[in-house]
# Entry
Amino acid sequence: CLLMPLSCTSPPRTSRFFSPKTPESFASLMIRVRRCGGGLHDWPGKPGFELENHGAADEYVHVWTRAEGKKRAGCRPAEKKRGGKGMIADQTLRMAADRRNLLVGAACSPHLIAREPEYAQTLAREFNCLVAENCMKAAYVQPERGRFDFGPADRLVAFAEENRMRVRGHTLVWHNQMPEWMKTAGFSREEALGVMRDHIRGVLAHFKGRVFCWDVVNEALADGGGWRMKSPWFQMIGPDYVEAAFRFAREADPDVLLFYNDYGMDQPGSKADECYRMVRDFLDRGVPIDGVGFQYHLGVENHLDRSACAANVRRFRELGLAVHFTEMDMGIRKPITDELRSQQASEYANRVGIALDAGVSALVFWGFTDKYSWVPSFTKGEYDEPLLFDSSYRPKPAWKAVFDALAS
Ligand code: 9MR
# Structure
């Protein structure tokens, strides 16, 4: 069931499991099967063990128990090695994150999920969380005033549910990707507040219970400090549009987690300080907010000081807020060499280290395959290869580094 759209009614079959390289170093083998229809079943076995009469769409978790008693993920089903479907690899980011009770996610597109099986399979296999790269933004979900279109976003949420992935909502109030009508109608402050409230209500009501958190406001702070005054929301309403959005969101859904999300606060500095002051003020005044998203769009040349960055993030946690890393990618400046790819890998590991040190609960990448990323076009071809899988969906050194950092 993990890799949709496999049928749950596929005929029973038998799988043979591979031995680890040194089977004698393991005392026993456990094969855990999560049945397509629900329920976990454990079978003790030994290398070469055959599991009979399982459904093709069941999911396998194999646990080798070391002689000294330490558990390790181990073998993989024979079908996997032959490229068969319905199985998950035993070593995925998702499994490493699950073991730590962390979310590991990726931004994605429902069109690509429908069009490219390898895209969908990699996403479901490696991540336990997803976020819409674009299709939940205002321009797409309310293209005309009062007419909501949730088609693509619904398909994305259905995919997440079929694959037991959590969904981060992105984003309700942002200066970009607003429909034309929302920013050009010359609304008064009161009208604009009404437009914002209706948008938030419409979207939150639709996704209630299916999206666990929302980036309520995205990128309201300017790079040089203060508010981003060119935002149509700022111009129509004034600086209190940010807190108004959080209040409307809480009214619309008392249960969903509400996040402020921004870039440029990944390292200590004036923008991070500004955000800290803003959210502390919100908490002091009872403006509802549950978390802060740090985007982490940075090039490979930005070496981050692990302890300084962790301290920067930790102070938000100490306010009682959740923190997610929401949009991680790491473009490499061309010409790209293997040395730069391994530098990218160690910088990714460093970011995971920051997250773990600071108590971050979700690590979300802004895409997962270099085949699809906003980075090359945004940087006019200067940067490329920002993600964990190459454009043929092969895991890169960066994937290995993130996996090892999560698994360590
Ligand atoms: O990746 C998104 C890209 O496809 C869109 O064209 C772009 C429009 O501005 O938005 C990109 O996603 C942004 C995200 O929503 C907010 N933080 C910055 C991301 C990269 O620009």
Residues 133-134, 176-177, 218, 295, 327, 374 surround 9MR (CB under 6 Å). Residues 1-14, 16-28, 62-88 have pLDDT under 50 and may be disordered.
